[in-house]
Amino acid sequence: MFSQALTARADSIAHHLETVFLFTQNDVRTTLIPVTIFALSTVPKFDPAHAWHAPLWIWFHLLQWNLANQIQDPEEDRKNKPSRPIPAGHISVDSAADIRWVMVPVCLILSLWYGTQALLASTVFAVFTNWYNELHGDKMGLSKNVLTAIVYGCAEVGGTVAASKSIQLQTFYHLLIKRTGSWNSGMDKVGALAVALSLTVFATTLHAQDFKDEEGDRLTGRCTLPTMFPKAARFSMMLGIPLWSFVLSHVWKLDAFSTSAFVAYGAYVGTRFVMYDTVGADKQSCKFYSVSRNITWEHTEVKLTMDSYQLWFTLGHLLPGYWRFFYGV
Predict the structure, then answer these.
(1) 3-state SS of 67-94?
(2) Could you give the 3-state DSSP secondary structure of residue 324?
(3) 282-318 tens-digit pLDDT
(4) What residues have CB less than 8 Å from 257, skipping those under 6 apart?
(5) Across the chain, what does the average pLDDT equal?
(6) What is the distance between the alpha carbons of residues 209 and 142, in angstroms, rounded to a whole number?
(7) pTM recorded for the entire structure
(8) How far is CA 319 from CA 43, 120, 146, 325, in A?
(9) Backbone angles phi, psi at 300, to 5 degrees
(10) What is d(CA 148, CA 243) in angstroms, rounded to the nearest whole number?
(11) How many beta carbons lie within 10 A of that of residue 260, not counting itself?
């Protein structure tokens, strides 16, 4: 009797854990891994023993974001993304909404242990997550790009700070009143520059991911840069990506060969958006810009596979680490 009850509880807990993970599953490769790479490349003093703190902090905030996002339009997800936990029947919208608001103080408390900058990053993350989702900031192309970039930048700041030190198990009295050494920030000027550049690059090139959805966005009335300025948006990729490749190479002092290779790859990625404008080609171009997935339907199951490409945006995340290695003090 006891063993049966224990097994039932274990199965129930496993189900809940699986449901929580499913909210973030699609963003593991698109956000969790790239931002973790950025954090570990940007941290002032890398310590392998502390490396796991970066994906921990990032994942908790990624869960907060996805919960807020996926409770907004479950009917659309039932049509377009049926594998998500709400349309798949793993959890109700009301229950997901409850967890969504619980995650705000959970993330703030977690960030409190890492210091002021992590706490500030978590606070700004929560504010702009609410703005993007509940206040529908994603409905306009320009605000969507800016809001997404700010949230992405907060994840980079929090992940970098978390990677720079381990959690200091001190009392709230010491943290809030005495403000001991563990309250000090783990983000230096180089890290701040890296985040600022990453945020700006992301905000000005994020619409690379919108071209493949242009037709559907027009039908639903969603405003994105490709739907509002189709030709200008494409030419902005052809000019912007190689230009940013050169700027980043110059800022982080890449050698001549690496600079040439990175700029050439950026020019190839950007030119694809102008030369090839079909839906299939846009999906392919997006893979070269950032991480994407192929979704293959097999009867009632959804099989997710990952294409391996040299990804321009992810490569850019490694450049602060290059500077740290060759020029850092």
Answers:
(1) HHHHCCCHHHHHHHCCCCCCCCCCCCHH
(2) helix
(3) 888 888 887 544 333 333 333 333 343 447 888 888 9
(4) none
(5) 82
(6) 14
(7) 0.80
(8) 12, 25, 23, 10
(9) -100, 0
(10) 22
(11) 14
